[in-house]
Amino acid sequence: MKIAILGAGESGVGAALLAKAKGLEVFVSDMGQIKEQYKAKLATAAIPYEEGTHTFERILEANEIIKSPGIPEKAAIVQEAVKRQIPVISEIEFAGRYSNAKFICITGTNGKTTTTLLTYHLLKSAGINVGLAGNIGESLAEKVIEDKHEYYVVELSSFQLDNMYQFKAHIGVLLNITPDHLDRYGYSMEKYAASKLRIAQNMSGTDYFIYNADDDNISNAFNSAAFGGTTIPFTLQGKENAKVTYEGQHINVQVKFFEGHIDTSKSSLIGKHNQYNTMAAVAVAKLLGISDEDISQALETFENAEHRLQHVGVAKEVTYINDSKATNVEAVYYALEGIKQPIIWIAGGVDKGNDYSVLEELAREKVKVLICLGTDNEKLKKAFGRIVPVIAETTSIEYAVRLSRSLAVPGDVVLLSPACASFDLFNNYEHRGQRFKEAVEKIVLKR
User: Fold this and answer.
1) Which domains does the chain have, with CATH numbers?
2) pLDDT tens-digit readout, 123-154
3) CA 256, CA 240: separation in Å to the nearest integer?
4) Which pLDDT score is estimated for 447?
5) 292-301 and 112-125 helices cross at what angle (nearest 10)?
6) Which residues make up each annotated binding site for ATP?
7) Phi, psi at residue 398, to the nearest 5°?
8) Fewest CB atoms within 10 Å of the CB: 33, 173, 274, 327?
9) Are 377 and 393 in contact (CB under 8 A)?
């Protein structure tokens, strides 16, 4: 059997290595340049590849094509494969054929990575034999070569879900559906929602679908009457029939034959959006029989991915938080909403057509100082000039941290949550977040 793989990133190379390990004839093709680390893996496994082009004749000899998620369906080579009735599948679909493990799959427009990492942490802390894979940046196919885990927690984007057909999750999690990537779905929310709901396809009575009952787009798109598995809705709004709820600093769970009352008071996760993420992860943990005490302890030790409301440190009773990944207004809203203390807010960068009006009420209530970090801060200053008592601006993140330290009093929070892209002063949001962390550690924490 001949397999052609389009794209030689993490998923494509992982799929190639799995196909080779299973004795299939493999060819890898990438229209761009392949990273050296992936070339080395392909060379070591003696897998032929090409870069900078797609050789249609060779690719279309395949019995099946595995497409990397970043390649759109409208790509010429994909269209030609469909025309010739050559199956085009995802790496996840391919990997699922070669594993007897149970898959815990997580998707949603926002919160996927946090929830995936948290779920993995809860399970691993409880001693469950679990692996981590998917959109988080690790190939499921490559892990399945050894297949040494009983469970895999898999983050899935809509692009990965689109080319999954027979694959089945044992537990599927859908956090939310908000407009995103609509250019790939004909600018149709219905098509985008249908893509997300593929997380629940092929489920039977022994499988579980955990979903946000407060999300109208999910409610409108999900036909529970036609669903083959067991539904576990979660809510912050007191929706009827929800099996997971949040009360004060506790999560109440009624799933399967497990009931729980989990203390979340020591969790480092901030904001309402993270309450949703935590409910979903806790529901998974309870389905696998983990005790309330073990879950609470694991919530306390969880560290989120870098640059997502990341706790950097405390000095003189002032807390420093790195939320550099907040490159849009919605993400900043979550940050401001979740922090209860007075805030010194560092924001700015390349504005993406932001409407800051939705932040006005929170800024008026919570922000005592706004430090504009960018080359052009006029829009920020105009939006908050009559709302925030003190506004400063700079192009130096070190100065922004130094100024924050001088203006802060015990109990304050210094928050980097830019609402903007980073490209005026930094390479990317990771670079910006790392520079903030370094400045805090150098200027604040070491003194």
Assistant:
1) 2-89 (3.40.50.720), 93-301 (3.40.1190.10), 310-445 (3.90.190.20)
2) 999 999 999 999 998 999 999 999 999 999 99
3) 17
4) 58
5) 120
6) 108-114
7) -65, -40
8) 33
9) yes
